[in-house]
Amino acid sequence: MEATSILNNGGKNDIESNRSYQDNSIDLVTIEEIMENYEENKIAIQKYIKFKCDECEVDPSPVGAFLNEKIIPTLRDGLCKMLREVKQDDSFYKPRSTLNGLDFLSEYLYNMNPLHPERKSNWTYIFDVQWVVDFLENSPRPFYPLSLIWSKDVAAKKIQSFWKGYCDRKKEEVREIREFWKNIDGKEGVHYPPIEVTYEVDDTNNQ
């Protein structure tokens, strides 16, 4: 009984303390004053920023204007086109690819140069540009491995032909023939007689 009475009294005390806290809440007048001060400070800061901007007018940089008007739009279009090429080549899913992003962008920017509009109609491959040819003569690149040059179909045919030849070379009769010709080729002074091949021509169709 004493425990329940203590718990009940404790609950009543908590409720009364919450009521007293609600009664001591911030007055609405104080909130309105805070909002008015905030708006006044905000307006003052905006006027100050506008005054400083009008006072310190800076002429636009010619380099920045050229970048914004000429380079960035062309570069943006080149990046979008490069992403489409990467998606078409499935380079997202391959660790290595023949598609070089720097070469692609260099070729695109060279042919789409705003200072040379004639290049757009006469597209030039990047490795046919004279300064690229001169650079590669002094610093040649290594050749691409066949795994990057061949397509999936060509690679599959090469693998299948190699495996078929390997299986044929493992046969006993084929191994004997190969050993026979190896022994003959290893002997010195062995001359094979020339093989004469004659062809019979059927003249009945010409008559």
Automatic annotation (TrEMBL):
<dbReference type="InterPro" id="IPR043408">
    <property type="entry name" value="IQCK"/>
</dbReference>
<protein>
    <submittedName>
        <fullName>Uncharacterized protein</fullName>
    </submittedName>
</protein>
